[in-house]
UniProtKB/TrEMBL annotation:
Catalytic activity, as annotated: [protein]-peptidylproline (omega=180) = [protein]-peptidylproline (omega=0)
Domain notes: Consists of 3 domains; the N-terminus binds the ribosome, the middle domain has PPIase activity, while the C-terminus has intrinsic chaperone activity on its own.
SUPFAM superfamilies, A to Z: FKBP-like, Triger factor/SurA peptide-binding domain-like, Trigger factor ribosome-binding domain
Top-level lineage group: Bacteria
Protein name (Swiss-Prot/TrEMBL): Trigger factor
Predominant subcellular localization, coarse grouping: cytoplasm
Stretches assigned to coiled coil: none
EC number in record: 5.2.1.8
Residue ranges of every copy of the PPIase FKBP-type domain listed in the record: 169-264
Length: 450
């Protein structure tokens, strides 16, 4: 085998490999000898088929098999001799000329091909103990618990039918049909929708115009969608709704006591408050971890600046770009609506893609160097948790992951990442800083970019 390096540029390598015909023929001969004892042909006793006869019958197919194996072995040797870690599978370019290919298959010519490989960079890990981070923390206060319990109570307040006109606080069950410029629009119609007047749960101005409505009465409600409305195709537009009231109900008394808690399946009001407090604490802790993790990743990105494999970066970018453009298309928005251009947006997302790949490689290197692994039990628990999200389909979900290695890897990867993050947070200097709820849940520019 002869190997000639044609390109060594950044993380790309290209080689020309020549596999001599004699070497391939020798390997084919060995393979034919192995077949001699296995092939059953009419007119020959088992194991007595002449190799020359086998070569006439199966020579080309055997040589093709040998070539495939030889190419794989040659590529593996190039990677091992170079001490490379591959970013992608080698890309092999075999001869395309039919006459040349036939000569190789017939054993009359050497096989010459090129192989392109993309390697992972060598990563020099930084000093993680030198990383200093601030972790925002927020204790759960009694007032927050009380407010949450009150909201739960309001959501479960009893209502009773009433005669006469609807007032603020009443629940009106309505059906409506919306239109913009006289044309009905998707999502603008609803049947038997409960609306608590004064709850501000509908478009601004909608509930106010229902005050005084009576059962079976129809009104035209004119509103304007907010500029920041989630459906971009409706944002800022004026709409008209034909609304018919089906029933009017008045709010009943609601006592925050043990009896109310029991209607929610709790033993007492105190038990309900403890559960609420625990849930809020989980939310705060999750948000706190997200913040400190983001800052840790920023620090890692600052410590490790290196070229990333172009193909990996391109694949990551394409995934991001497809998601962004699909969402914009669904919302009928353009880059101009985002105060940017397609070229500028591409440049921004390419940087984000490179950062993601770089951090992924850094985290993988840290995990490998420190023997951080994900156990089969941890993956199994993740599969079980995933299956629970699909009641009635647990078995199908289980089978899907059991038979799909790529899907299973998608569960293993985030577990691995979190374990590496835990490892790094143990080494870094982390200072807990008390913050307000507004500060904890504020979305900064870096979070938006991520």
């Amino acid at each position: 085998m002869q190997v000639t390096e044609l390109l060594a540029e950044g993380l790309k390598r290209e080689y020309r490999v020549v596999l001599p015909a004699a070497e391939l023929d020798a390997k084919a001969q060995v393979r034919l000898n192995e077949l001699k004892d296995k092939v059953r042909l009419n007119g020959f006793r088992p194991g007595k088929v002449p190799v020359a006869h086998l070569k006439r019958m199966y020579g080309k197919s055997v040589l093709a098999e040998v070539i495939d194996q030889a190419v794989n072995e040659a590529n593996t040797k190039i990677v091992e001799d170079g001490g490379f870690k591959l970013a992608m599978q080698p890309k092999v370019e075999l001869p395309q000329d039919e006459a040349a290919v036939n000569e190789v298959i017939e054993g009359k010519a050497d096989l010459s091909y090129t192989v392109n490989i993309e390697v992972l960079p060598k990563i020099e890990l930084g000093d993680f103990k030198a990383i200093s981070l601030e972790k925002p923390v927020l204790a759960v206060g009694d007032e927050e618990v009380e407010d949450t319990v009150k909201r739960i109570a309001e959501a479960n307040r009893p209502f009773t039918a009433k005669e006469g006109a609807a007032e603020n606080g009443d629940r009106v069950t309505v059906s409506f049909v919306g239109s913009i410029d006289g044309e009905k629009f998707e999502g603008g119609s609803g049947e038997d929708i409960p609306v608590v007047l004064g709850s501000n749960s509908f478009i601004p101005g909608f509930e106010e115009q229902l005050v005084g409505i009576k059962a079976d009465e129809t009104r035209t409600v004119n509103v304007t969608f907010p500029e920041a409305y989630q459906a971009a195709n409706l944002a800022g537009k004026a709409a008209s709704f034909e609304v018919t009231a089906k029933t009017i109900e008045a709010p009943g008394e609601l006592n925050l006591d043990d009896e109310f808690a029991k209607t929610l399946g709790m033993d007492s009001l105190e038990a309900l408050k403890e559960q609420v407090k625990s849930r809020i604490a989980q939310e705060h802790n999750a948000q706190s971890r997200n913040k400190v993790k983001r800052r840790l990743l920023d620090a890692l990105d600052g410590l490790h600046q290196f070229e990333v494999p172009p193909t990996l970066a391109e694949q990551e970018f394409q995934g991001i770009w497809d998601s962004v453009t699909s969402e914009m298309q669904a919302q009928n928005r353009t880059f101009a609506d985002e105060d940017t251009t397609e070229e500028a947006a591409r440049a921004d997302y390419e940087k984000i893609a490179q950062r993601r790949v770089r951090l992924g490689l850094v985290l993988a290197e840290i995990g490998e160097k420190n023997n951080i692994q994900v156990s089969d039990d941890e993956v199994t628990r993740a599969v079980v948790e995933r299956a629970r999200q699909f009641p009635g389909q647990e078995q199908q979900v289980w089978e899907f992951y059991r038979n799909n290695a790529q899907a299973l890897a998608s569960l293993r990867a985030p577990i691995f990442e979190e374990k590496v993050v835990d490892f790094l947070l143990e080494l870094a200097k982390v200072k807990e800083v008390p913050v307000t709820r507004e500060e904890l849940y504020a979305e900064d520019e870096a979070d938006k970019a991520a």
